[in-house]
Structures are given as C-alpha cells and as structure tokens.
Automatic annotation (TrEMBL):
Keyword Transmembrane helix: yes
Spans traversing the lipid bilayer: 71-89, 95-112, 117-133, 145-171
Source species, domain of life: Bacteria
UniProt KW Cell inner membrane keyword: no
InterPro entries: Znf_put
Domain Putative zinc-finger: 5-39
Identification of the protein by name: Putative zinc-finger domain-containing protein
UniProtKB keywords: Membrane, Transmembrane, Transmembrane helix
Length: 178
C-alpha cells in the first residue's frame, strides 16, 4: 500500500457522497483503475452499513412523570417556604429578618429554576396575599389594604431580586470559568 492508497482510503466516503472536487474525483478514479485493493475497498464502501435498532430499557413516559413529580414537590416546598417567610419575617411583624431570608429565597429559587418570573411569583404573591389578609382584619379601606400590601410585597421582592442577581452572577461566572 503506497501513500496514494492511504489518501484514497480517506477520500472514499467523500467520493461516494459526491463531496470532492472534480479534479480530485478524476485523480481518485484514475487510481481506482490501477489499484486492485483500493477498487475492492471502494466497492465495499458503496454499500450502506446496516444499522441495528437499539431499544432502550427505560420507559420515557415513566421517567418524565417521576421528574415532573419531583419538580412539583420542589415547587410546593418553595411556595410553602415563601408563605412561611411572608408570615414570620414580614414588615407587618415589625421584623427586619425578611431582608436576609428573602435574599436567600431569591438566591436559592433563581439558582434552582434560573427563571426570574418564577422568583418574582414565589416572592411577591405570598407576601402580597398575607399582607392583604392582615390588612383586611383591620378597619381600612380596600384601596388602602391593596396599596399597603403592594408596597410591602414590593419591598420584599426587592431583596428577593438582589438574591437572584447574586445567583445569576454566580452562575455566569461559573459558566465563564469552564
């Protein structure tokens, strides 16, 4: 086998697909006329290789059902935690612990989901609902109750977004480091 035979061997797949230049095709065909071993190799490589179907032992529907169940459980846990944080650490209770807890909630939620809309929903809605419910127990108008609940929920959301921003930057630096 000479050097030309090695070149022909490399070019045969491209030759059979019609992906080489006309000059290269002419040279290759000329070589095939004069070299018996390359001609045999060319004839063998014309036939497509039979592909076997590989069957997976994994039931995809069952696997995705388990994954969706786990994600649903995590979502319920995050929502329950956010309601707990809303009840225990909000400004309504005259506690400033919400600053740390909502920053951590924003960090963990964004790190897990990597979607800001989910972070906003999990942080804003429970606080808004809890604040609105607390305001309804007092003798205030509906408009005052809604505006007060909105104000408190936005303050809590601010610290949640700060935590999300930290998680976003951590994820970005981690990706750039790889």
């Amino acid at each position: 086998m000479n050097r030309d035979c090695y070149i022909v061997e490399d070019l045969l797949p491209l030759y059979h697909e019609g992906l080489i230049q006309a000059e290269t095709t002419a040279w290759l065909e000329e070589h095939l006329k004069s070299c018996e071993s390359c001609r045999e190799l060319s004839n063998l490589s014309k036939d497509p290789v039979q592909k076997e179907t590989i069957r997976s032992s994994v039931d995809n529907d069952q696997m995705f059902a388990k994954i969706n169940l786990k994600l649903s459980v995590y979502q319920i846990i995050f929502v329950a935690l956010s309601f707990f944080f809303a009840m225990k650490t909000s400004l309504l209770n005259e506690s400033f612990g919400f600053i740390l807890t909502y920053t951590i909630l924003g960090f963990v939620t964004y790190f897990f989901y990597q979607r800001l809309i989910i972070v906003v929903t999990i942080a804003f809605l429970p606080t808004f609902i809890w604040s609105l419910a607390q305001s309804m127990n007092e003798t205030v108008s509906i408009l005052e109750a809604i505006s007060g609940a909105l104000f408190l929920a936005l303050i809590h959301l601010l610290f949640t977004i700060i935590g999300s921003l930290v998680a976003f930057l951590l994820i970005k630096f981690k990706k750039e480091g790889n």
